[in-house]
Design brief:
- The protein is mostly helical.
- It has one domain.
- It has helices at residues 2-26, 30-55, 58-93.
- The radius of gyration is 17 Å and the shape is elongated.
């Protein structure tokens, strides 16, 4: 019974991942794409935890932990680059 529930959750996570990738590609603004990227990172993290639980393997949980750390650092780097880009963009307008 629990395997059926986890399979259903994995399927739902995969659907949301596809939706986030579409939003990431077609997002009208950079901020929308950044939010979609952050949400995609969280969904992949959840998917890794679900698969680790399903297969009863701690390796997936270790990978999920490292993925989460690098995802957060990557998000901070992108936000910092965007901040510099927006500051230079507003300085050019004035």
């Amino acid at each position: 019974m629990i395997h059926f529930v986890i399979d259903g959750m994995v399927f739902i996570f995969l659907l949301w991942i596809v939706a986030c990738v579409i939003k990431l590609i077609m997002g009208p603004s950079t901020a929308d794409r950044l939010v979609a990227l952050n949400l995609l990172s969280g969904l992949v993290l959840g998917l890794l935890v679900l698969i680790g639980t399903q297969k009863q393997s701690s390796l997936f949980l270790d990978v999920a932990l490292v993925y989460d750390i690098f995802g957060f650092l990557g998000f901070l780097a992108i936000a910092k680059i965007l901040e510099k880009h927006l500051k230079s963009y507003t300085a050019d307008e004035e």
